[in-house]
Amino acid sequence: MNLRDLEYLVALSQELHFRKAAEKCFVSQPTLSGQLRKLEEELGVILIERTSRSVLLTPAGLAVTAQAKRILAETKELTDIARTYRDPMSGELHLGLIPTVGPYLLPHIIPSLKLHFPELQLYLHEAQTHTLLKQLADGELDCLMLAELDHMESFASVPLYHEPMLLALPSDHAWAKRQSVSLSELKGEKLLMLEDGHCLRDQAMGYCFAAGIGEDTHFKATSLETLRNMVAAGSGLTLMPELAITAQHLDGNICYIRVIDPEPSRAISLLYRHHSVRRPCFNEIAKRVQDSLSFLVRPSA
To answer: DSSP characters for the chain?
Structure first.
């Protein structure tokens, strides 16, 4: 048994397809399949149910895969420990971001990170919050940048910035010329929202429910850009994170105004596993993110 065999098993558990798992591991399908058969022979149990149509893990396969993930994560931790003492700002770093943060944050921070940490190889992964948290817990990702929620206490975090949500409305709306609107004035309105699974939806809905604001259930968007296009078409109002509003979005079809009393907002943080040896690296990255955004958004308290 070797670590590579465990990597093959984990890849197959994720893809449930021999060819795709082989491609993910950069080996041929016969190589991956053959090594997994040898692993089964060595352990003396069947790990994989093979049929002409599907690949399934047996109960033994599921248990062994879970342990394999832990072993691979611990092995990576050993490598990280050595790198931390040698050069904390070098090597691979797998960073996860949510879809309502990644596209709007990365253009501001990537140039600075590349300039100050040229030996750091960033790998970026975008997914919804629940997926990223599982990948972080399993050791597949090193850290995350996302909106921090109450149920994330099992991870350590570094505050990055505080991001208000602005009201996006069609340019011909009665409020379009206003500088701000109080949250209570939106009572009775129905706002366009993202679909279930986006933490921004949960945060926005929290403010809306408290103020008596409803959701337009006729439409749920998969992205902020879809929401933006719906507002531009005159289909309703929505809340938009401040970083998602740039000069190119001020095209005359949509107006963005401040919401006050209270101001809807979210706190964006960098999350990592407790006791991670790469904490010095995460702290340095957090500082660069804060510096890059100092003129755009408020720092987190």
So the answer is: --HHHHHHHHHHHHH--HHHHHHHHTS-HHHHHHHHHHHHHHHTS--EEE-SS-EEE-HHHHHHHHHHHHHHHHHHHHHHHHHHHH-TT-EEEEEEE-TTTHHHHHHHHHHHHHHH-TTEEEEEEE--HHHHHHHHHTTS-SEEEEE--GGGTTEEEEEEEEEEEEEEEETTSTTTT-SEEEGGGGTT-EEEEEPTT-HHHHHHHHHHHHTT-EEEEEEEESSHHHHHHHHHTTS-BEEEEGGG--GGG-SSSEEEEEEESSPPEEEEEEEEETT-TTHHHHHHHHHHHHHHTTTTSBPP-
